[in-house]
């Protein structure tokens, strides 16, 4: 499991064998079954998590029981509830395995040790935070200005692999549209593609 992390991190940070060994020594590996929670609403997020296999989703549940997906995270990506992790406050979100998933985790204390000991990890962490902020801003812009059709097209263009791996009701939840609206949009797009000879 850690070997996959090493292969991935090599593209983003130039780490020595000793630095990788130190990272490994401070890490914990886990396997999650489909629908198993990594983080439950009300708990404090104590881990920074790297996904080596599988797919996770971050979501919150309204009082009426409806779910709203904030993010999907697949192989070779990181997932954390930043607010809960940074402030050590109860999370407003759940993080759940959509598929059987394998992860590497570092506690906040251990990741802080890595940030102090390995400048390349500190730089990578800053880039990841910046990328996360950019993605959040793009998501807000999409939600307040895109039509349902534009949201759907942006999702399948940006996340084709995730689109193939999650059920339509989760895509609808992520896009902030009803399942009926998504079905209508999808049907209209498939019909257009058929008329254009693309199907």
TrEMBL record:
CDD domains: CAP_ED
Gene3D superfamilies (alphabetical): Jelly Rolls
Pfam families: cNMP_binding
Residue ranges occupied by any Cyclic nucleotide-binding domain in the UniProt entry: 11-115
Protein name, per record: CRP-like cAMP-binding protein
Organism: Chitinophaga japonensis
Lineage: Bacteria, Pseudomonadati, Bacteroidota, Chitinophagia, Chitinophagales
């Amino acid at each position: 499991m850690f070997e996959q992390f090493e292969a991935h991190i090599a593209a983003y940070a130039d780490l020595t064998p000793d630095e990788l060994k130190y990272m490994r020594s401070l890490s914990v590996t886990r396997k999650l079954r489909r629908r198993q929670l990594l983080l439950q609403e009300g708990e404090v997020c104590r881990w920074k998590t790297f996904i080596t296999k599988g797919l996770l989703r971050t979501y919150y549940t309204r009082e009426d029981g409806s779910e709203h997906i904030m993010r999907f995270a697949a192989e070779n990506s990181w997932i954390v509830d930043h607010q809960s992790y940074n402030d050590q406050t109860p999370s407003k979100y759940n993080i759940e395995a959509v598929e059987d998933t394998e992860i590497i985790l570092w506690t906040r204390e251990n990741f802080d040790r890595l940030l102090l000991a390995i400048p390349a990890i500190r730089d990578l962490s800053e880039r990841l935070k910046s990328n996360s902020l950019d993605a959040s801003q793009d998501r807000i812009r999409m939600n307040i200005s895109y039509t349902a059709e534009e949201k759907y097209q942006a999702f399948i263009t940006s996340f084709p692999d995730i689109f193939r791996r999650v059920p339509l009701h989760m895509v609808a939840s992520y896009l902030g549209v009803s399942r009926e609206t998504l079905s209508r949009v999808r049907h209209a797009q498939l019909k257009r593609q058929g008329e254009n000879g693309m199907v």
